[in-house]
Amino acid sequence: MNRWTEKLTFWRIMFVIILAVGMVAGFRRFYLGLGATTGLSDQVPWGMWIGFDVMSGVALAAGGFTLSALVYIFNLKQFHAVVRPAILTAFLGYILVAVGLLFDLGRPWYIWHPIFFRNPHSVMLEVAWCVMLYLTVLAFEFVPAFFERLGWGKAVKVMKVGTPILVILGVLLSSLHQSSLGSLFLIVPNKLHPLWYSARLPYLFFVSAMSVGFAMVIVESYLSNRAFRKELERPIITDLGRAMMVSLIFLAVLRGQDLIGRGGLPYMFQATTEAGLFWLEIGLGIIIPVILVAIPKIRAHPQGMFYAGLAAVLGLILNRMNVSITGMAAKLGAYFPSWEELSISIMLVALGFAAFAWAVKNLPVFGPSPWTGTVVITPALETERVARQAELQPARVSIQ
Amino acid sequence: MDRQRALLIDITRCVGCGACSEACKTANNLPPEPEKALSATAYTVIQEKGDYFVRDLCRHCQQPTCVSVCPVGAFEKTAEGPVTYDGDKCIGCRYCMTACPFSIPRYEWTSRAPLVRKCIMCSERVKEGKMTACSESCPAEATVFGWRDELIAEAHRRISENPDGYYNLVYGENEVGGTNVLFLSPVNFADLGFPTNLGNAALPPLTWEVLEKIPNFVVASGVILGGLWWLINRRATVDELRHQTGESHPKHPGQSANIRTHQAGGESR
Which secondary structure element, helix H or strand E, spans residue A98, and what is its range? Predict the structure, then answer.
């Protein structure tokens, strides 16, 4: 117990330092302007705040719509316990994307302009609208956790009625803007390296976001479990891992087919920085997680699944950075983020972690919830759950 | 499309005096110091490429990428031909800078309320029937102002009259769907640093072909998802009711059975 409090204090000190440095960087960015405080230039107008904070941030929040769809539309009740943490991740993720945009936009006080000035030919407008609307949907999806905490049973029941509509809206809006983040780059066929430029970017972005949504839920369930001793049944993590593996294999097939189809295979075997980054991305994001999940012993072990999920998350971040920054570097010029860009991004991640931790501690995020959606968990399913857990016991013992 | 105004820049005639960039700075109230590359305070510059002087400036595309990508519609392709910019709408997302095939737009990086800057082909003067400041100031007639179709004809006439003196291409006649700034060069355009991989198709359709599918996608997917939800959850509710009333179901829902088989085949190995 002593060691535990020490650890918490260490992370708290780290958090305060990250916050302080981030705030100094934020002040400098608004006082001195983008030029003096970022690595951005006329040649490289998009950097880390777009590639990491926005592109990766949105994709990593995809677990919210995939899991709510699996549970509420497809009635796969085994995932029920992780829907709310996934929705919380998505909600926090999108808030942080919006905050990150405030730093990146040149005139952030006009962030509301897309509501009134609309160019229907712009992918960016569609992304802006979908993100705004989906953030609203996520707020509605998560607010029952507050109502439960406050004991407002009636409000919870009212929200329950709207669940299917919210979930369907969420899936629609997510599939639109997840893919549209890829569509943004359809307009740069002459700038983006052929390992990444493809007419199928929207599909690739959608499928990769879907698979990394599962990965993120695995990662955060594991970390919350360690930090707060919020016990999560092992079969859920294993099922999430399987879902991740299937969607990653689907992604690999799509990417392979796409590369072959447009004659991009030779680029994979050239001695270029791009080819190196491509293999790193594929290795981290697809090969390692698929192999880890495919091994039954690792699949049954939460820590193994954590590493599989983490690799998929890192691979996805690298993919989004490659598409939005490094894949265009050969045509546009070199870019390296400034310390202000780095520390503001780190601050946003830290704020996300802190908000997640606060919510897990203070709200019914993990564990049984009276807000069980549209259908009650049947006794049959409950027995099944117990049976499955019993089946898994030997595996855990043998590994530990 | 109605006849549009355009510029024809003949690199064989340019002597590199810099009168055009100077006149541009005066016309747009920019600081007069000469600059070597495009910037937020230089909408056109003359760059020395080997033995030749090459002007750089916005090409005022026939189907401009910047106009199509801007979420708030800050860019406009005017009827006369110039592509203009309304800073009051701009939110500063810089998608125009990323998307421009010629990488022309520049940003006021040092400002606290930065705007995008680029040549607007003296749109106010052009609207009044006057020529652009750069073409007016050019002593060598290297930059001439006129109707786009007439300038294209003139460019081809110059090439056919002196085929040894010109590279046989009017750059901008067809590139990315055609531009309103046309170039004639004595050598291959690639040697002068012009992007030669752009193709002749305009870029905006690349994103529009995806965007135009959205309304149908939303309606179709909404119906499918709603239907799936109703079918799957209705079955579960019926099973639940049967369960409560003690009625046995001949075929128990496949779902839980599936999980069990799956589980047995997977983890227990």
Answer: helix A80-104
